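User: Could you go from structure to sequence for me? I need the amino acid at each position, not a summary. Structure tokens:
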């Protein structure tokens, strides 16, 4: 009687909880590695350069002289620096 419940709990853990925790850890590592001058992309697709790092926000420059403040949770990726041609 308890065996099917135990199997269901194991499947739930390995299919849902474990991958979700892994993604959360990767996102936390990404956010902690972002520093001033890094190029980033927000969830909404806005490209910018980090100009200031605060407790829960970043001040990013999206064009020359145009700065916006975004939440850290709104950062999707950190872009690699462009290689000179």
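Assistant: Here is the amino acid at each position, in order:
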């Amino acid at each position: 009687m308890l065996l099917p419940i135990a199997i269901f709990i194991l499947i739930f853990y390995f299919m849902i909880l474990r991958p979700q925790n892994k993604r959360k850890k990767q996102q936390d590592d990404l956010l902690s590695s972002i520093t001033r001058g890094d190029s980033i992309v927000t969830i909404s697709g806005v490209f910018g350069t980090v100009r200031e790092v605060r407790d829960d926000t970043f001040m990013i420059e999206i064009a020359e002289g145009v700065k916006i403040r975004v939440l850290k949770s709104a950062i999707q990726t950190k872009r690699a620096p462009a290689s000179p041609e």
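One structural detail worth keeping in mind: The chain has a mean pLDDT of 91.
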